[in-house]
Amino acid sequence: MRFFVTVIILTLYLFSYSSYQVEPYYQIEDEEITTQQSSEFVIVEDNSTDNELEFVEFQSQTPVIEYIDLKTAQKEAIDEHKFLLIKIESNNCPSCIRLNTLLDTNENIKSMVNTYTKAVKYNREDDKIPAKLDYFGTPTLFIFDSSGKQVLMKLQGNEAIDELEESLNTVIYDQS
């Protein structure tokens, strides 16, 4: 009876963790373990003789991108001499999900957006998008000058994902 209770408890314990998706945090290359980071943990190689891995909580160095309303963003962009970034997305859009993941996880992009822009986000299904924003599909990213009158960058669809970091670098550092 004791054996069966132990098996049941162990099964329930394992089942409770099996419903979570665990992404690999490390990869093996030439029999060496390389350090990989995620938004939650970083795994580092333990140099002790038992060859165990140590889990260390990883905190992002850059805060998440703060989105504000258009009027506030325009006023703050002018006052602080920053660019105006406008993101248009839609529900159930795979490219929008990929873009949001990139914006949430890429430290360089987050740093540039937080430092040099005031960000506004519109959802095509939920928000009334200003008519002056000429866009075809989602996701679409615009960067305007601080006055909000001149478009300095426009990226749409997968281009918004693939070329975002390079385009931000070009606009921010060439225009600053």
From TrEMBL:
Ranges of residues in domain Thioredoxin-like fold: 79-165
Matches recorded under InterPro entries: Thioredoxin-like_fold (IPR012336), Thioredoxin-like_sf (IPR036249)
Pfam families for the chain: Thioredoxin_2
Protein name: Thioredoxin-like fold domain-containing protein
